[in-house]
Structure formats: C-alpha cells, structure tokens
Write a structure and sequence with these properties.
The protein is mostly helical. Helices cover about 80% and strands about 0% of the residues. It is rod-shaped.
Length: about 45
C-alpha cells in the first residue's frame, strides 16, 4: 500500500496512508490473534 501510494499514484493526500495503515495493521493482528486463540481453545478440548 505504501509503495503504491508513494511511487505509483502520488497524490497530495498520500501522506494519510501513514496514519491509516497502522490502524489496519493492528486490526489484522487482532483478528489473527483472536482466530489463533479460538483454534487453540477448540483443539484443547
């Protein structure tokens, strides 16, 4: 996403990717962590 914003489609609002991308990264990490916890709980029984 950063490469596309900076090099392929440069725009005045491109700097906003540096504010929004960490939020998306934390959301993805949270979903993956929740999935792993649920799978671990299901396999432990």
């Amino acid at each position: 996403m950063v490469f596309d914003t900076v090099f392929i489609h440069p725009d005045a609002q491109g700097g906003l990717i540096f504010l929004s991308l960490p939020i998306y990264q934390w959301l993805v990490i949270g979903v993956l962590e929740l999935t792993l916890v649920l799978l671990r709980a299901r396999n432990a029984i």
